């Protein structure tokens, strides 16, 4: 495995308050990395910084060992895709929603059409192509949202709690589908959640984020079975709830 | 498809509107561009329709683009004092003389006259019909009949105030029956008609409005004090340097020419059976 | 009642006979109003977008001023423009007073705040996370604005319709800065006022029917545009 993304001394501030301070963080190529933490731990802030949507106060970011800290351009941003908790679809058809990322990248029409069709198929929503986004159910909308992210074939896919608003059967089906798609395409994924069940199912590696700091990182099962001093209380509470 | 249709409609309208502009401008390109000449005048000359006849006659003879701004005499005179108009056609002799004295207006010429009349409801509650004007005003105040005043500092308004003053009556004693319209002659007449009130008007505007107010009649006319005299004058270009002096001079000259006099004398005869304006012979 | 029917009859007569004066007045009305709304739209949408999305000191003050501007009485707008365009005023050299340009200026002054304020309200209602999401989809600044504009297109068209309504109905300022000069600055509203003061109620009514028909056609087209089946 090679390191795909690495950050050093990352710090995000809001005014004088430090929201996030991460001395070192790495994502391996093809890895599915889960980030777990209580509300307000800085999970969304972390994703925004990693996906280059927010400029950190300081820190260095390396993509494939290349320092891109001073090169946080659109071109870099376009290597990533983000799906958030709310699907936030545009007021148009499903097809057009999935096509947005490709259209923004000015791909030829024919290519847009074939790629969108392929991804609608993979997420099993081809039959919705002509429907208005505003008429979709929650599960359908989230599938469109994920297809919209995957269609650009990102180097890294960022998932910011995309399943947390769904009911259980819908969530379970979508988790299965996205897992198989991620494995099939070998997509490096950063997956933020506060739900241990989702994380256990999807992530190879688990990072625990608390108070803006990474408290523990390691293979998912290892972290869960042997939490350290800072994470023990949080993890054990989850485990007692699940058992 | 439907969207295209509505878009098309909007653009079509815009296009037509745009074309109207270009076609309107074409003749200007052929003849050299005319200089604008701003005439500030009273609403009575416009509302009677006289200027609609005089404007083409003037523009045919002289190479100016006559812009007629019809406002109250008060505003017209103010435009003169500020040099915002080139030539004035107004009917407030006392105020006009002040303008000449201050040097804002020059070359003031008598053009025409008609008369003011006192009109009122056919029922004539104050019994003023065919009385002399001072007596009529006295009677109106006695029974506190409704009296509608222009109240807009126009020539007619100035005249009305002058008449009250001459009669030695303060119209304010009418209290609520003294209605200050603050509008043009046409609107004031309509208010008078609706309120069964009396009002002072120039004959021309009344004749033009008569068809809309069958219950209103002329009460007092022909009184010496009711003469309504129109003067034309140039705004002094030595005092206001942006004034179109040549055009103003031409217009003053035009207004006292024999051809123009003939137009004025005959104006209104065919429509109202009597002329609206009279000349000084 | 009788007068209403008479007016309607007269309006139809005037339109059918192709009275050149009526045609001229109508076309001028359209030219002036559409130009004013077009300018207000071209300035008001970007300005409204900026006020709606950007955060900078003094923004609330500007928003308040724009909101007050929505209620700016046309005669006040007319008065200000008159003062500027007077021969002795700062823009006197242009000789714009008593020209259609002056009317257009006055109409822009009364419609621009409406378009700007309503547009900015529309943009303020956008979920900030949507902006983030669109950025994450790989949008440039310009692409972001374009996408957001499409998201609020209904509200933007409503802003344009409101602006147009203000402009086509406006009379006080047009009278003051245009002067109601026959063949030059006489538009439908000012000729209605004039015909009323002349006592020609039938003609005034006829003109009012023409005005309302125009307003209806344009507003209907814009509404149709607004309510059409949505597509990207």
TrEMBL record, chain A:
Keywords: ATP-binding, Nucleotide-binding, Transport. SMART domains: AAA. Residues 5-236 form the ABC transporter domain. GO terms for molecular function: ATP binding; ATP hydrolysis activity. Gene3D superfamilies: P-loop containing nucleotide triphosphate hydrolases. It holds the Pfam family ABC_tran. SUPFAM superfamilies: P-loop containing nucleoside triphosphate hydrolases (SSF52540). Transmembrane segments: none annotated. PANTHER family: SPERMIDINE/PUTRESCINE IMPORT ATP-BINDING PROTEIN POTA (PTHR42781), SPERMIDINE_PUTRESCINE IMPORT ATP-BINDING PROTEIN POTA (PTHR42781:SF4). This is ABC transporter ATP-binding protein.
UniProtKB/TrEMBL annotation, chain B:
Residues 1-24 form the signal peptide. Keywords: Signal. InterPro entries: ABC-Tungstate_binding, PBP_domain. SUPFAM superfamilies: Periplasmic binding protein-like II (SSF53850). Residues 34-258 form the PBP domain. Pfam families: PBP_like_2. PANTHER family: EXTRACELLULAR TUNGSTATE BINDING PROTEIN (PTHR37945). This is Tungsten ABC transporter substrate-binding protein. It comes from Mesobacillus subterraneus.
UniProtKB/TrEMBL annotation, chain C:
The chain crosses the membrane at residues 32-54, 61-86, 98-123, 144-169, 203-225. Coiled coil: none annotated. Pfam families: BPD_transp_1. It comes from the Bacteria. This is ABC transporter permease subunit. Residues 26-222 form the ABC transmembrane type-1 domain. It is a multi-pass membrane protein. Belongs to the binding-protein-dependent transport system permease family. One of its GO terms (cellular component) is plasma membrane. Keywords: Membrane, Transmembrane, Transmembrane helix, Transport. CDD domains: TM_PBP2. The lineage of its organism: Bacteria, Bacillati, Bacillota, Bacilli, Bacillales.
